[in-house]
TrEMBL record:
It is found in: Cell membrane. Gene3D superfamilies: P-loop containing nucleotide triphosphate hydrolases. It holds the Pfam family ABC_tran. This is Iron complex transport system ATP-binding protein. Residues 12-248 form the ABC transporter domain. InterPro entries: AAA+_ATPase, ABC_transporter-like_ATP-bd, ABC_transporter-like_CS, P-loop_NTPase, Siderophore_ABC-ATPase. GO terms for molecular function: ATP binding; ATP hydrolysis activity. Signal peptide: none annotated. Keywords: ATP-binding, Cell membrane, Ion transport, Iron, Iron transport, Membrane, Nucleotide-binding, Transport. It comes from Pseudochelatococcus contaminans. GO terms for cellular component: plasma membrane. GO terms for biological process: iron ion transport. Belongs to the ABC transporter superfamily. Transmembrane segments: none annotated.
Length: 290
């Protein structure tokens, strides 16, 4: 299904962005433009700055240098509620108060649209119902969150973010700790929100093959810098995987989708050690070192 007609997609960019914790620079002079109405995956090894960049895009961090711009305006100049009506953020492993139902959680997504003493409106009900429908959580609305499976809980959190009705949604490791079936469930939901609802979604992911299969745009990071960005076919190369992750691998077409599929072989150091061992064995058996 084609994407729905909508207003011009939001323009979210980071320019010359530098973020440090104390004396340690986490993100260094980063420039990034997020494609509108598309799914962008941030990938890279632990400590590469993925979650830090996501938090900066959400306006949750003070940046040292540079700026994050939304439709040409620095997000640092936007009020908290104004920003929350435009960018939704779902952190990794959120923990709700005990005893909360799915519907209670989803209703919390409406806070940017309500005044301090404002009454609950029909628009709030409609937004919550739409969020429950999109995430297939309608029949679970009255269930306590702690009684749900991991995949169901993650969908409940995404429903809360959808009730916020933002054109941009940022997700930090949305499939972490989920089994394979629930990972696929969440990834299919993300793809559907982009394709059918025209959302702009940015997610931190660890599974390279999931990222390549579902994302429209990939950003590969190492040590706070972007090493590659673009279409998955351009980013997922054997040389780039070895450079970023230190892993030797083959890149082949996914037999189902045709997207790049990484088959890891060995870390670089293991390859070197194996090569040395093979040469020594050859020498001990009368061969010659090369």
């Amino acid at each position: 299904m084609s994407r729905p007609d909508a207003e011009r997609p939001p323009d979210l960019t980071a320019s010359n962005l530098t973020i440090a914790y104390g004396n340690e620079i986490i993100v260094d002079d980063l420039a990034l433009s997020i494609p509108g109405q598309a799914f962008t995956a941030l990938i890279g090894p632990n400590g590469s700055g993925k979650s830090t960049i996501l938090r900066a895009l959400a306006g949750l961090l003070n940046v040292g240098n540079g700026a994050v711009m939304l439709d040409g305006q620095s997000i640092a100049r936007l009020g908290v509620k104004d920003l929350a009506r435009r960018i939704g953020m779902l952190a990794q492993g959120p923990v709700p108060p005990e005893g909360l139902t799915v519907l209670d959680l989803v209703k919390q997504g409406r806070y940017p649209h309500r005044s301090l003493f404002g009454r609950w409106r029909r628009e709030d009900d409609d937004a919550c119902e739409e969020a429950l429908h999109l995430t297939n959580m309608e029949e679970l609305r009255n269930r306590a969150l702690e009684s749900l499976s991991g995949g169901q809980r993650q969908r409940a959190w995404i429903a809360m973010a959808l009730a916020q009705e933002t054109p941009i949604l940022l997700l930090d490791e949305p499939t972490t700790f989920l089994d394979l079936a629930h990972q696929i469930e969440v990834m299919e939901l993300i793809a559907d929100l982009v394709d059918r609802r025209g959302k702009t979604i940015v997610a931190v992911l660890h599974d390279l093959n999931q990222a390549a299969r579902y994302a429209d745009y990939m950003v590969m990071l190492k040590a706070g810098s972007i090493l590659a960005k673009g279409d998955p076919n351009e980013v997922m190369t054997a040389s780039m995987i070895e450079r970023v992750f230190g892993v030797v691998g083959n890149i082949v077409p996914d037999p189902v989708t045709g997207t790049p599929l990484c088959i890891p072989l060995a870390p670089r150091r293991d390859r070197a050690r194996n090569r040395t061992g093979n040469m020594l064995r050859s020498d001990n058996s009368g061969g010659h070192l090369t």
